[in-house]
Amino acid sequence: PVTKRAVAEAAQHDKVPRPVGFVPPPPPCPGKIRYFDI
Amino acid sequence: VPAAPPTPLGCDDPESEAAAEAAVNYINGHSHHGYKFAFNRIEDIRVVPQGPSKDIIFLELDLLETTCHILSPTPLANCTVRSFTEHAVEGDCDVKLQRVDGTLSVLASKCHSHADSSEDIIKVCPECPLLASLNNTEVLEAVSAALNDYNSKTTDSYLRLLEIGRAKIQYHPAHVVVIEFAVGATNCSAEDAKADVKACQLLPKHQSNFGFCTAVMVKSPSQDLKVDCQLYGHQVPAPYIPLLSRPGVTYPYPGQDTS
Questions:
Q1: Which of A30, B26, B90, B239 is deepest in the core (most CB within 10 A)?
Q2: Taking CA atoms, what residue in A is nearest to B10?
Q3: What residue of A is the nearest CA neighbor of B119?
């Protein structure tokens, strides 16, 4: 029988262990601002 | 095993910046009014592969107005971006490019420009003058007075108005109108114009001397008018040199604008 796991539990299992000091890459867009934003 | 989909381009990747630069050069090269725009930010980029070494690139660009009129021969790299407190103008552009074997060409572009909101300027600089509408009566009177003043004093060609670029009006502590406008030389000297100004026509485009004038008209507490006009000299199109040319990316003549 298929049992629906609690989201928290599923999330716990699915969470990939991050190496210490892992810094997520910057979002690809939008890019950096060269002058100023209005 | 099907090939892995290409990793999507980031907005700060060198290839994205090369595409943005080609787009900005195309936009400035195909605009006939207002000021040159500088590249400020890539909002988004989407690459649609069309086959081996052939892609369609969709760019969303954020540009900022510079102080160089579009007719100025000054290279974009030497044009100052108008500061926030000068009441900056932003350009939002959607551009479609084609890249074949690394060569970029613009297929279509569509831009919309808008001045920063007055509230934003006043928040940062309460006493900064704000942009006025170009058909404001005070602006039109100031442009007419400035051009007449210049033509009455010059020994060169009689100048005619091409377009008003921008205008700002300050009311306190003094009442001041600051204007910028583009001018064209005519086939008359200023002296001839005194006799028959109707005969003075703008020189044909390929010959004419374009120029740019700035003027400050103080209306109170005292009256004063200062005008400065710079003629660009004969418009010899400068050879196109990519601002930041990159190996492997070349820029052909501008593409056909199908926007």
A1: B26
A2: A28
A3: A38
